[in-house]
Design brief:
The chain has 413 residues and is an alpha+beta fold. 52% of the residues lie in helices and 18% in strands.
């Protein structure tokens, strides 16, 4: 108790010295917190991929559309487990406002364009590529599940603009018929590739494919995603599909498993870059803090000698100075949390662009949804920062603490 009290008094009395150490420690903790945010985001993305991603292939329409008969023929191929169909249609939405495009929306007829939006009729929202790679994320409610009918998943910005809650019904028009769709969930995400306001993801409805089946006899799809029973047989199944008598000049087929490997390669690159950054921060923290503490110990030689003269041991003195640093570290941790979270976005963007950039410097394969740290995460960061401080103080104290008490007392003169 006496040691802790002496440490607290030393921190208060030498406020200039304490502020210098507080500033350095704050930067160290902020960098570690930023890294922890990125690492948690990566781990959550990997969990989502492992949970939702299934081996298979995707059939995309060329100049025309994929006929339901063609899609069903592929579904009968041995090794194909199930399919996720997607058909895009224009919905009439006279009662709702569309999210504006902020200079990216192209408007041909503003009055008419505000009356419609694009709806993607799907089998399962979880199998959509953007939900798998983290570009889109369910924020409230749930997604569209297989067999869903008259259910819709909408963007949170559209919901906010029109004051729509999960569980509400929205009234839309399709093929001159009115439909009432129940909102089962809200999702978030951006897509800068869309240009028309009606096509923006903020104005996109995701609806169960069975709803469209009741209104349209001959379904046609923009794409169909097929899942296979055995991941090792993906290439074999694709080979069997290509033997079908379909018009392959108008159809594009791609291996989803190959895309997954690309996504994981990007994540691996991100993890390597993040590890280098965290190691660099730790090493620099030890060196800079150790250099400052070296002069800090030498400047307190008179104080150390006095404590030795009144019977305090070197271990007791070391513990006092370590407690002083722990007090300063605790005081700076609050501001470090703010700075760390503030800079986490910029760090994420930098790492992602370095890991897998396209021509414009943006990562297209993987989008990291930022995750908030919980109490255990912050405790881990504090312990990691404490280890950096312990190594720094241990190295800096050697030059003084290795001396014998008589030598320290002699240096006081």
């Amino acid at each position: 108790m006496e040691v802790a009290w002496r440490a607290w008094l030393a921190v208060r009395r030498k406020w200039a010295r304490s502020l210098t150490l507080l500033f350095i420690m704050c930067l160290i903790f902020a960098a570690l917190i930023s890294g922890a945010v990125v690492r948690k985001s990566i781990n959550e993305l990997k969990k989502t991929l492992n949970r939702n991603f299934h081996a298979g292939f995707t059939l995309r329409a060329g100049r025309g559309l994929i006929k339901d008969g063609e899609a069903q023929e592929i579904l009968k191929v041995q090794g194909v487990q199930k399919a996720n169909f997607q058909a895009d249609e224009l919905l009439e939405v006279p009662h709702y406002k569309l999210v504006e495009g902020n200079d990216r929306g192209v408007t041909l007829d503003h009055k008419e364009e505000k009356q419609t939006l694009v709806a993607s009729f799907i089998s399962e929202s979880a199998e959509i590529e953007e939900f798998l790679n983290g570009k889109y994320e369910i924020v409230r409610g749930r997604g569209i599940s297989e067999g869903a009918e008259n259910e819709v998943l909408i963007h949170e910005e559209f919901a906010t603009l029109n004051q729509i809650q999960v569980g509400d019904e929205v009234e839309v028009g399709l093929y001159k018929k009115k439909l009432k769709l129940k909102v089962v969930g809200l999702f978030s995400g951006k897509d800068s590739q869309q240009t028309f306001r009606a096509e923006m993801i903020e104005n996109r409805f995701l609806v169960g494919i069975k709803t469209l089946g009741r209104l349209k006899k001959n379904l046609e799809y923009q794409l169909v995603k097929y899942l296979v029973n055995d991941p090792k047989r993906v290439d074999e199944v694709i080979g069997s599909v290509k033997k079908l008598g379909l018009d392959w000049k108008e159809l594009n087929l791609e291996n989803n498993f190959a895309k997954k490997e690309t996504i994981y390669q990007t994540i691996e690159n991100v993890e390597k870059l993040l590890a280098k950054i965290l190691v660099g921060v730790s090493v620099m923290g030890i060196l800079v803090l150790g250099f400052v503490l070296l002069f800090w110990f030498r400047g307190r030689i008179h104080e150390i000698g006095t404590l030795l003269a009144i019977g305090k041991t070197k271990a007791n003195i070391f513990w006092q100075m370590l407690i002083e640093l722990i007090i300063i570290a605790t005081l700076c941790f609050g501001p470090a949390i703010f700075l760390g979270n503030l800079s986490a976005g910029a760090l994420t963007e930098k790492i992602m662009s370095e890991a897998n950039p396209d021509q414009s410097g943006n990562t297209t394969d993987v989008v990291l949804g930022r995750k908030q740290l919980d109490l255990l995460d912050y405790l881990g960061v504090y312990m990691c920062g404490g280890a950096v401080i312990l190594l720094a103080v241990g190295g800096a104290s050697v030059s003084v603490m290795r001396l014998k008490p008589k030598a320290i007392l002699t240096k006081m003169k």
